Amino acid sequence: MGIGAGLRRRLLVMLLVPLVLLSMLNAWFDYRSADNVALQQDQRLLALVPLLADSVIGEETRLGEGPVLLLAPAVEEFLKERPGSAAFSIMDADGKALRGERWLAGLPPTTYNAEFRSEEMDGVTWRIVRQRVQSVVGEITVVLADGSDPRQQWARSIFLTVLLPNLILVAAGAVAVNWAVRLALRPLLELREAVERRSPDDLNSIDVQASPLEVRPLVESLNRLFDLVNAQAESQRRFVADAAHQLRTPLAGLQAQVEAWAQAVNQPTADTPARTLTLQAEQVNKLRNAARRTSQLANQLLALSRADARAVHAQPMQQVDLKALCETLLETNLDAAAERLMDLGLDAQPAQVQGYEWLLRELLSNLLNNAIKYTQTGGTITLRCGQRDEGAFLEVEDDGPGITRAERPLVLQRFYRVQGAQGEGNGLGLAIADEIARAHHARLTLDSGAQGRGLRVTLCFAAPVAG
What we know:
Layout: H1 2-54, E1 56-60, E2 67-69, H2 73-81, E3 86-91, E4 97-100, E5 115-121, E6 124-135, E7 138-146, H3 150-197, H4 216-265, H5 274-307, H6 309-312, E8 318-321, H7 322-339, E9 343-348, E10 352-355, H8 357-374, E11 380-388, E12 391-398, H9 429-439, E13 442-448, E14 455-461
Parallel strand pairs: 9-11
Antiparallel strand pairs: 1-2, 3-4, 3-7, 5-6, 6-7, 8-10, 11-12, 12-14, 13-14
Helix pairs in contact: 1-3, 4-5, 5-9, 7-8, 8-9
């Protein structure tokens, strides 16, 4: 998940934790509110106690119904306001109920101070106050009970009225915040994916205006880094190209002089000693081979610089006829193959691709030069092109010594030569071919030739064939 998951998790925690804390604070305030209301209720009950005591106006009646009562208006209103949730009782000094609810009877208080307690009766929690008082009939105990205690209601409804709505709110908030965070982070995730999809050769600047405002400083920093890396790579390419280009002229002159010298040595006069001629010929041939290798190295360095994938992106691709290109390269290399008695054949089918013709010519030239150079005298080389299910292809196959499977990835590196390879070479031919393949977004593969002999190098174009 990476950066998106980390930021999303962090934002969810940062947003939901305060929401949970607020919910808990809300429950606490709700409880405090109920507690304050309950305190007021206790004070009201306490204020009604003397009024209830004053309501006793006479001795017990002859019918045995207890003392005569004339309820004070406040007490009567209290009982009527809460039908089924308000009760009273009047007890004698021994705790015997004289009037009111008998279930409220019990041991009287030991002092004249009011006593508050909560008792449960038939599933209802009652708030009860008891106090010993003096009345017209003597000492009695007055009891008032209120079944609508706000603390009881809060305790019963805490889940439905506080916890459940808050839990639903937190859950809905988590879904909403997750959706909002995911939507808000989408531009950042798209930016990450765009950078990850880039090839190592793509150092073009990222569109700053298409990025979120908060991320633009990061995008601008990335663009500055891309520009610095691109400038450094361009400087290196320019240096290699300039150096190779500057070396070509003096090397060409040197090679011409050495060739002329070698020709003169190889055509000796009659009075030249044979031993002297042999030594001169050996030295001149070594010098000629060194001059050829140096000249080839300069040309390959220049080709490598030109084939760099970053260097060709600025140039437009054109439609390339692979069959015509193969026919041209066949004619160019026929003489070199004939000198070594090689069978250089062509198996070309019509195929066209979008690409750079001069680079594909350089690729085929390197592959054919390698095949001619390293295949034994009298060997067979076949140049192919055509169309397959996956796209167009170019292929060079020989029956030479080939390359072991372990060394095939290595030969695509610059200046690597196969162990024990015969002949002259700088280890750049296949590296140039691989660079050209990447410039065309194609795949270069190395396999064994027919019957497991030799080497078959194939360039497969992934893009659909034009026309």
